[in-house]
């Protein structure tokens, strides 16, 4: 969770267990993240697995030398996977200190170390700090309030700030969840910040989550190269990347702007 307003009252954080899965909630029935109790560092939800699609554009040999950043900690699934499984330098930015405490107490988030840092801050303000610019190879944005109705930060200016974080071959992945009209507006804002030729997207999951990827430097790898990389991702890290290629493609987006803008 994160917000552009720090004066808001932060929701209560709680969890529920169902079978062998633990779920994080922010005072409502909406699920903000999950964890397999017997495999706490794996990624359980399909859309969260898809947030790792930036691996399709990265040389697997260099992954452990790269920097991942999450905006919104959730149940720390992406943060744990990046740090523990991919062995990357990992930074998470989270507004609500209760979420950080919950992740450390209930969701196996390790303490900070030389390659893991959790920053309690307003993501919109934090990412404008020059220290982060040009340092992030994999930016993962999943910013929803307790009602999970639409992204909390979703302006073209915000996505431009996200782009400024990325290295030349870096990627941003965003979880967009909500009405189709909201998705189309978000997509247009991302394309406005990154360029229409930099945007890729998955088809929606059954639950309605659509993961969108934007590249700092647009590229169009050949299908054979993507298939080879997807197989490597599945073999090395257990993610179903070959299946991704059936529902993941570059988007041709026409950006319409109001007259005079």
Give the overall shape, derived from the CA principal axes.
globular
Average residue pLDDT: 89
Q: State the major sheet.
A: 8 strands, mixed
Please give the alpha-carbon distance between the first and last residues. 31 Å
Radius of gyration of CA atoms, rounded to a whole number = 17 Å
- In sequence order, what are the helices and strands, one letter per element? EEEHEHEHEHEHEHEEHHE
Helix amount: 25-40%
- Discrete helix count: 8
User: What is the strand content?
Assistant: 15-25%
Alpha-beta classification: alpha/beta
**Parts with pLDDT < 50 across at least 5 consecutive residues:** 1-7
The spatial strand order of the largest sheet comes to 6-5-4-7-8-10-9-11
Number of strands: 11
Describe the protein in words.
By secondary structure, this protein is α/β, with parallel strands linked by helices. Helix content is 28%, strand content 24%. The chain is built from 8 helices and 11 strands. The strands form 2 sheets. The protein has an 8-stranded mixed sheet, with helices on both faces. Strands 1-2-3 form a 3-stranded antiparallel sheet, with no helix packed on it. A hairpin with a 6-residue loop joins β9 and β10. The radius of gyration is 17 Å and the shape is globular. The chain starts with 13 loop residues before the first strand and ends in an 11-residue tail after the last strand.
What is the secondary structure topology, with strand pairs?
Blueprint: E1 14-18, E2 21-25, E3 33-36, H1 46-50, E4 67-71, H2 77-85, E5 89-94, H3 97-106, E6 116-120, H4 123-126, E7 136-141, H5 156-165, E8 166-177, H6 180-194, E9 199-202, E10 209-215, H7 223-237, H8 241-244, E11 248-250
Parallel strand pairs: 4-5, 4-7, 5-6, 7-8
Antiparallel strand pairs: 1-2, 2-3, 8-10, 9-10, 9-11
